[in-house]
Amino acid sequence: PRPRTIFSGIQPTGIPHLGNYLGALRNWVDLQNGASPDDTLLFSIVGMHALTMPQDPKRLFRERREMMATLLAIGLDPHRCTIFHQDQVKQHAELAWYLMCQTPFGKLGRMTTWKSKLATARNSADESSIDETQLALGLFAYPVLQAADILLYRSTHVPVGEDQVQHLELSRDVADLFNRTYRKRFFPLPQHIITPTKRILSLRDPTSKMSKSAPDVNSRILLTDTPAQISSKIRKAVTDAERTISYDPTNRPGVSNLLSILSGLSSDPGSTPAKVAEELNGALARQAEQGGKELPSGKYLKDAVADVCVEALRPIQHELERVKMDQAYLAEMEEKGRAKAEEAAEANMQAVRRMMGV
Ligand code: ADP
Ligand code: NA
């Protein structure tokens, strides 16, 4: 197979939750571990994207460093991947501008993420919240910066969640337009690698996704939550009163979401939420047969989920503590990542500038 260049990014705002981990970060580690030695892997912390919304500088600075620590703690290997801050490689901004000069305005207006941000701003009755006229130009142009992030390294593959598929299509369009304009197949049209894990839902409202912006802190599990916090949040998760456990996302979204979490955290690559449900049901039935105390299925499921989450996060948290103690090491990794990314970016930008006549 042809060598791949795999690129992905995450914003440095806030501690990642279980949805980010199962939907994105853990997949990066799996890609790394399954990659061929000829593949190039780039994982970036996209501070420039965070700046499309108001940020407190001190907090942003701290969170950028913490995200670097997190990426190392989950198992990304700086010898194998380029792990870097996008905002330290200026070629991202340069290429974004060039691509913005070619991207039709109307195309960006059709992006669903923009439309939903716009609708929220328009419909908000809250006087203090941001109104439509104050939404930043950068927020509108965000998908072009994302295209620049990807194309800057001439990436061929991008692991993304379903919510990002439209943006990746835009990246392909932007690449194609550039190639046609300058009559050269310079940028590969990046393909997506869809994350195998199901979308993780809010523990408290399993009709919406687990998100760092939801006001209810009990709706999400953070990678840094203590065992007590994890148990408490899972105990408060919405389930139902049925006696058995089954995977039925339509009729039993809360139960099914917990099964997705269990299956996602399983070390068995063949695990599915439906198989997990079957196993748990078997155990539940055996317990009843043996005359043991009959637990309600929801309680039984929650106990299992809490145990698995605590065990899965323990080594990550341990590693995170260790890495964060060594700020000099983190600074060194950041510098190493920056230098490596910049070298590749500059080589490609020299070709881009030449093609464009600047
Ligand atoms: P949030 O929506 O919490 O602000 P981001 O938009 O920063 O999270 O997403 C970072 C990455 O995590 C993206 O690749 C996104 O697809 C993934 N992701 C976010 N929330 C979830 C979720 N609930 N389930 C699965 N993946 C998710
Ligand atoms: Na989001």
From TrEMBL:
Record-linked Gene3D superfamilies: HUPs, Tyrosyl-Transfer RNA Synthetase
Main location as per UniProt: mitochondrion
EC nos: 6.1.1.2
Source species, domain of life: Eukaryota
Family annotation (CDD domains): TrpRS_core
Keywords, ordered alphabetically: Aminoacyl-tRNA synthetase, ATP-binding, Ligase, Nucleotide-binding, Protein biosynthesis
Places the protein is found: Mitochondrion matrix
GO molecular function: ATP binding; tryptophan-tRNA ligase activity
GO cellular component: mitochondrial matrix
Keyword flag Aminoacyl-tRNA synthetase: yes
Uppermost EC category: ligase
GO terms, biological process: mitochondrial tryptophanyl-tRNA aminoacylation
Classification via PANTHER family: TRYPTOPHAN--TRNA LIGASE, MITOCHONDRIAL (PTHR43766:SF1)
Family membership noted in the UniProt record: Belongs to the class-I aminoacyl-tRNA synthetase family.
Protein name: Tryptophan--tRNA ligase, mitochondrial
Organism from which the protein derives: Pseudozyma flocculosa
